[in-house]
């Protein structure tokens, strides 16, 4: 029995109400229904996100009196500038590594079927269901001086004694790339799935090699997914706290750890709020640049 048969009959010429339009299976909702459905979401975002964030940011310009000195400290002190640059550098390295590892896996996920496809999907999704703390702790076990990696290197004769792998910039980048890898793979996979296989076959029939077809057909059409994945990983890496704190050293201090120190140790909430304000400004700027880049890509015919 269909929904139309179950729904109450409407008088001739009558306009269905919002609930009746939903019941009748109409795809479009009225403005009032849309607002009613979205109200709980916006109230939740206002109470648990917008209000606390605005209250925190107000401390940066209102405590102890109206001033911008807290923001001036961020850019005047070379130590804080160094932390910001290091955060951007580590986030960039993490994004590049995630892209190098994630693109081939996303491409393979679009090519395989059956049990292999299920296995690859599980490998991508299962880490999202586990704690970041657990995944970071696993890297500590692997990279410590008595860990598996050092044992393998010594067994192969590559090194004569354990080397320092943990508490380095490389360990921070590697662990962060592993944690954020699903956020790179999923957008690229979604973009690659929307590219018809006929395009690659047509390129081959026209004499293009696999390499040329990849760089001139597949890669340009997947640019939107690549941009999305890079943006998600980079912005997430900018504010990462747990992984750098556990596998990094004071020399790899990032802005999230600096904010934590200002709040917990220095009790300098206004300056911590200023650091958060600067980080938010960077995130907003990058988001707008990304939006412009994707729009330009589509205008020029790029993306799927």
UniProtKB/TrEMBL annotation:
It is a multi-pass membrane protein. SUPFAM superfamilies: MetI-like (SSF161098). It is found in: Cell membrane. The keyword rRNA-binding does not apply. The chain crosses the membrane at residues 29-54, 88-108, 115-142, 172-192, 213-242, 269-290. Pfam families: BPD_transp_1 (PF00528). One of its GO terms (biological process) is transmembrane transport. It comes from the Bacteria. Residues 84-290 form the ABC transmembrane type-1 domain. Keywords: Cell membrane, Membrane, Transmembrane, Transmembrane helix, Transport. One of its GO terms (cellular component) is plasma membrane. Its main location: membrane. Belongs to the binding-protein-dependent transport system permease family. CysTW subfamily. This is ABC transporter permease. It comes from Diaphorobacter aerolatus. The lineage of its organism: Bacteria, Pseudomonadati, Pseudomonadota, Betaproteobacteria, Burkholderiales.
């Amino acid at each position: 029995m269909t929904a139309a048969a179950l729904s109450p009959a409407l008088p001739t010429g009558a306009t269905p109400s919002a609930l009746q339009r939903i019941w009748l299976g109409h795809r479009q909702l009225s403005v009032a229904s849309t607002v009613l459905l979205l109200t709980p979401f916006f109230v939740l975002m206002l109470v648990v996100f917008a209000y606390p964030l605005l209250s925190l940011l107000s401390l940066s310009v209102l405590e102890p009196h109206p001033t911008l000195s807290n923001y001036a400290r961020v850019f005047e002190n070379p130590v804080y500038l160094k932390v910001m640059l290091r955060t951007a550098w580590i986030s960039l390295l993490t994004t590049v590594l995630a892209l190098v590892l994630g693109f081939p896996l996303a491409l393979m996920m679009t090519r395989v079927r059956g049990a292999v496809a299920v296995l690859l999907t599980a490998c991508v999704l299962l880490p999202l269901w586990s704690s970041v703390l657990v995944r970071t702790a696993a890297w500590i076990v692997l990279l410590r001086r008595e860990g598996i990696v050092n044992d393998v290197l010594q067994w192969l004769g590559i090194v004569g004694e354990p080397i320092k792998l943990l508490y380095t910039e490389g360990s921070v980048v590697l662990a962060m790339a592993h944690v954020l890898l699903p956020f790179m793979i999923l957008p690229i996979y979604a973009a690659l799935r929307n590219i018809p296989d006929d395009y690659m076959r047509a390129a081959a029939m026209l004499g293009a090699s696999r390499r040329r077809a990849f760089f001139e057909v597949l890669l340009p059409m997947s640019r939107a997914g690549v941009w999305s994945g890079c943006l998600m990983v980079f912005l997430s890496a900018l504010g990462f706290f747990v992984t750098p704190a556990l596998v990094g050293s004071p020399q790899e201090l990032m802005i999230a750890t600096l904010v934590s120190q200002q709040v917990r140790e220095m009790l300098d909430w206004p300056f911590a709020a200023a650091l958060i304000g600067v980080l938010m400004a960077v995130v907003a700027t990058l988001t707008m640049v990304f939006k412009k880049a994707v729009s330009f890509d589509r205008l020029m015919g790029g993306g799927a």
